[in-house]
Design goal:
The structure is a homodimer of 164-residue chains. Chain A is mostly helical and 164 residues long. In chain A, 56% of the residues lie in helices and 6% in strands. The first copy, chain A, has one domain (13-159): Arc Repressor Mutant, subunit A (Orthogonal Bundle), CATH 1.10.10. Chain A has 6 helices and 2 strands; from the N terminus they run ααααββαα. The first copy, chain A, has a two-stranded antiparallel ribbon with strand order 1-2. Chains A and B meet through α1, α2, α3, α5 and α6 of A and α1, α2, α3, α5 and α6 of B. Chain B binds a DNA duplex (23 and 23 nucleotides) through α1 and α4.
Chain lengths: 164, 164
DNA sequence: TATTGTTATACTCTATAACTATA
DNA sequence: TATAGTTATAGAGTATAACAATA
């Protein structure tokens, strides 16, 4: 799996820039998470560009589609981002005609979000783009590595001590 | 390890917001990488705030310290970010008195970067802050999970198809 | 008082385009 | 022509503070 029957070759970022002394910077987990995140986000942004949506906007469309009438507060809780941050995505999506905001009749503070026909079309195409993108970036991983990665990331996320 | 001797409980993001239909959004790897990245970055930013540096600025200081006289181009290659992006961090670090830029005598196009005494102090304190931060966020992981995470992230990074 | 949404503002990280100076 | 650095500008994603409307 890892090559010939010698000691497993350790592949590190050192091999990418051999002339630099990394001084153990590559033992910082956050660095690698950040690098891989940038890789995923920037590639996906390019794929989604023709559809005039960003990765986070698609995630919002995705959940609104599956939960018609959902409130911004619910999205804020799911993504663990602040309400004004959610609102910014929602505002852009409404401006671009992918989403509408219908005030709730039960609680007039809250709005309910729905996709437009155009929003549904964009979501369908975006899901296809995401599927191709994820397939492309994870072909090197075995099925077991993929599921381990999901499991470990989830464990990190769920075990994080509360803010403050 | 995972609880009583029943089928391993699957812990997902669904359990965080039970009332939402996720419609398989949680099968998108990029979402989890992004969430964990935000977790790491935002926590570290708060820890570094008293030192007046950001996570990326510390990474720059770290490499300049280990490679006195390094060029911005080398940093650009290591971090896989564009030269103007590196320059922005460098400019801020110089402005804050943590870095100096001494033009090379061999190639007057290039500058060489060095830490100031204050930069060295901030780096030392930042490394301590990062060590505590990483320890705090990864305590839930076993040693094997940690090394698997490093290995899989590195594999993703190194196997990524070239841009375009 | 508490919740929902909104507006204004700002910060971090990233990019592209276009420029200067040097090799 | 190619490389190193710089400047200007922009965009994605995030936050906090303060406010209005509603419950």
């Amino acid at each position: 799996m890892e090559g010939p029957s010698v000691a497993t070759a350790e592949i590190t970022r050192q091999s990418v820039v051999p002339e630099l002394d990394l001084d153990d910077l590559d033992s910082v987990l956050g660095l690698h998470i950040g690098t891989v995140n940038t890789l995923f986000v920037s590639r996906l942004e390019k794929r989604l560009d023709p559809l005039s949506v960003t990765p986070k906007q698609v995630a919002i469309l995705w959940l609104v589609n599956a939960n018609p009438g959902v409130k911004q507060t619910d999205l804020s809780r799911f993504f663990q981002i602040e309400r004004p941050t959610v609102h910014q995505f929602v505002r852009q999506l409404i401006k671009n005609g992918f989403l509408i905001n219908e005030p709730s009749k039960l609680d007039r503070r809250a709005g309910g979000l729905w996709l437009t026909d155009e929003g549904r079309e964009v979501l369908t195409k975006s899901r296809q783009a995401i599927a191709e993108h994820e397939e492309q970036l994870t072909t090197a991983l075995t099925a077991r590595e993929k599921s381990e990665l999901f499991r470990i990331l989830m464990k990190l996320y769920l075990s994080a001590p509360a803010k403050d």
